[in-house]
Design brief:
The chain has one domain: Phosphatidylinositol Phosphate Kinase II Beta (2-Layer Sandwich), CATH 3.30.800.10. Helix content is about 35%, strand content about 25%. The protein contains three helices and five strands, in the order H-H-E-E-E-H-E-E. Strands 1-2-3-5-4 form a five-stranded antiparallel β-sheet.
Length: about 110
């Protein structure tokens, strides 16, 4: 899935195509209880992360990037395309991660 373009991301995450997925998504079954959903075409996962996860990921970011560059396309670790924070006056800040879905055939 290398060679992802901004257009690929925009198409996969189009509000028009993903509205249904967002409303049917829920808290994960995992320990963190993160909210996540798959893009309509199953190429991407959007997952919330807590402040501690964000801090930990940022602390290993250089090593993570070096690992992916060193192994090129041979790493089984999902690609992270971005981490974002939304802040509003209506709710606490929310951190979320846009990542590759490594199980595209789901």
């Amino acid at each position: 899935m290398d060679g992802i373009s901004i257009n690929d991301i925009n198409t996969s995450l189009s509000v028009e195509f993903n509205r249904h997925n967002v409303f049917k998504a829920g808290k994960g079954a995992g320990r963190s209880g993160s909210f996540f959903f798959f893009s309509h075409d199953k190429k991407f996962i959007v997952k919330t992360i807590c402040k501690n996860e964000l801090t930990k990921f940022l602390s290993i970011l250089d090593s993570f990037v070096n690992h992916l560059e060193k192994l090129e396309n041979k790493s089984l670790i999902a690609r992270i395309y971005g981490i974002f924070t939304i802040k509003t006056n209506f709710f606490n800040e929310v951190h979320f991660m846009l990542m590759q879905n490594t199980c595209i055939n789901t």
